[in-house]
Specification:
The protein has 174 residues and is an alpha+beta fold. The protein has five helices and six strands. Strands 1-2-6-5-4-3 form a six-stranded antiparallel β-sheet, with helices on one face. Helix 1 crosses helix 2 and helix 3 packs across helix 4. The longest helix has 20 residues. The two termini are 20 Å apart.
Length: 174
Amino acid sequence: MLLKGWTKEITRAECRPEAQTVHCIARLEQNIGEVIPYLNAVLGGYTYVKEPPSVTFRSQGKLISVHADHIAINALQDAEEAEKILQWLQREINDAWDKKSETTPSFQAAPRPQVIEILRLLPKTNCKQCGQPTCMVFAAMAAEGGKGAEYCPALSPEAREHLTAYLSRFHFAI
């Protein structure tokens, strides 16, 4: 087991005291720098930095950055959600470490969803049923991991299936 524990700090953005979300910094008890390329290979990072090693993922509207000595997570509902994500990451990190001999490390970011491809799958009616002013805004949010096909009521079942399949190639579930 590579990652055994952390100390968690939950904060609210000082520049936006009205914000409804919190952020988490987890200071790791162990240095996990060596596993980051393997974790990137397994989870397909949104961005990857070789030195110092870090990988960032986007999922469900959150940015999750894994560094050698800490993990940063933004846009959380509360400390409970932070703990859930940290425990999931601990399992993924330790699993990637245990299986490193079977995995080719990746030193590049994964492909990103394209807004225009998402827009092509939407009804393009700008109906606002999803809560966004236009289908383009919805597509941009979906590309960032903040919205999924289930948030567009105007999609036909077939279009919903196509959009879900497209987005699932880029985002992971926690």
